[in-house]
């Protein structure tokens, strides 16, 4: 074989391999019916003391209801994927249960905190498609809807008639890892899947407790500053600064552990360039932010 024929064969092989990769991606997502692009949400799941409250009981809960109503009016939601601050694992898991249980992952609260149910069905087929998009994600039925998910969803979608599943956060991976992993989920937006990151841009449990349990709901000041910094970066579309929040002077004070911050990164990884960001709610409590927004 002459050298020029060999180089031509190499080129054809590379093109064929690339075509096969694109065809594989098409096969992965073709089981979904196409739809218009879904928005992506990031939301706080609120003050845990508010869990028993009913619809529209305070401004934050009203904001959740309004966001849910608007999304449902504009789009046909086939399933909801929640990345919750309250499911942290080693490795990344996705829940493939047909009927995810309501999980009460908190302790020492009055009895009424443990009697509520959010009986939304699961979406095992959709959840399994996540593992095709990202093969390193593992399937499990050993989870349900934790208090990063159902207390928020019961206000957004109170009829519990939209299928829901969760994907866990690998607690041991850095922020950039989560951003890069989450970008691989973007095709789900075209398939009727509403993706919600549920956490808090400011969540310092130790500092919050010093005031919450004394009835002092006045922010410290540094919490407001960091929350506003997040808003400024969102408005500038400086996503990488948000991903590498630990370099900001208040970053480790606002998020001393990654669990509540990482869902923000998942939501932002879904955003296309120049896509609209709508700030749906802004509130800062002591060492805790209820900031929420919609992409798209």
Description:
The protein has 296 residues and is an alpha/beta fold. It has ten helices and ten strands. The chain has helices at residues 3-29, 59-74, 124-133, 150-156, 175-183, 205-212, 222-236, 239-243, 251-254, 262-269; strands at residues 40-44, 79-89, 93-95, 138-140, 164-170, 193-199, 277-281, 284-285, 288-289, 292-295. The strands form three sheets. It has a six-stranded mixed β-sheet with strand order 5-2-6-1-10-7, sandwiched between helices. Strands 3-4 form a two-stranded parallel ribbon. Strands 8-9 form a two-stranded antiparallel ribbon. Strand 3 (93-95), helix 3 (124-133) and strand 4 form a beta-alpha-beta unit. Helix 2 (59-74) crosses helix 4 and helix 5 (175-183) runs parallel beside helix 10. The relative contact order is 0.19. Mean pLDDT is 89; it is low at 1-34.
Which secondary-structure class do the elements indicate? alpha/beta
The value of Rg in angstroms is 21 Å
Helix percent band: 25-40%
Q: So what's the overall shape? A: globular
Largest sheet: 6 strands, mixed
Distance between the termini: 54 Å
Low-confidence stretches: 1-34
Number of helices: 10
Look at the structure and give the mean pLDDT: 89
DSSP strand tally = 10
User: What series of H and E elements makes up the topology?
Assistant: HEHEEHEHEHEHHHHHEEEE
Neighbour order of strands in the largest sheet: 5-2-6-1-10-7
In percent terms, what proportion of residues is strand? 15-25%
């Amino acid at each position: 074989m002459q050298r020029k024929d060999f180089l031509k064969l190499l080129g054809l092989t590379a093109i064929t391999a690339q075509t096969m990769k694109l065809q594989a991606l098409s096969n992965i997502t073709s089981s979904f019916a196409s739809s218009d692009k879904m928005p992506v949400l990031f939301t706080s799941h609120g003050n845990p003391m508010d869990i028993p409250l009913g619809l529209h009981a305070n401004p934050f809960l009203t904001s959740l209801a309004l966001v849910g109503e608007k999304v449902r009016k504009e789009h046909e939601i086939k399933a909801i994927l929640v990345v919750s601050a309250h499911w942290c694992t080693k490795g990344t898991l996705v829940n493939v249960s047909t009927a995810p249980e309501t999980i009460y992952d908190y302790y020492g609260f009055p009895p009424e905190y443990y009697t509520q149910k959010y009986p939304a069905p699961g979406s095992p087929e959709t959840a399994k498609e996540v593992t095709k998009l990202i093969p390193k994600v593992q399937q499990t039925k050993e989870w349900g809807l934790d208090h990063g998910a159902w207390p928020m969803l019961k206000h957004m979608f109170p009829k519990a008639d939209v299928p829901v599943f969760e994907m866990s956060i690998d607690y041991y991976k850095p922020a950039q890892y989560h951003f890069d992993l989450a970008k691989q989920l973007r095709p789900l937006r075209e398939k009727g899947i509403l993706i919600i990151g549920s956490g808090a841009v400011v969540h310092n449990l130790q500092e919050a407790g010093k005031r919450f349990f004394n009835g002092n709901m006045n922010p410290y000041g540094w919490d407001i500053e960091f929350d506003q910094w997040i808003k400024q970066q969102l408005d500038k579309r400086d996503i990488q600064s948000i991903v590498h929040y630990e370099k900001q002077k208040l970053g480790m004070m606002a998020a001393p552990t990654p669990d509540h911050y990482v869902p923000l990164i998942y939501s932002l990884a879904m955003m296309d360039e120049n896509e609209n960001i709508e700030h749906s709610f802004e509130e800062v409590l002591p060492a805790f932010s209820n900031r929420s927004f919609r992409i798209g």
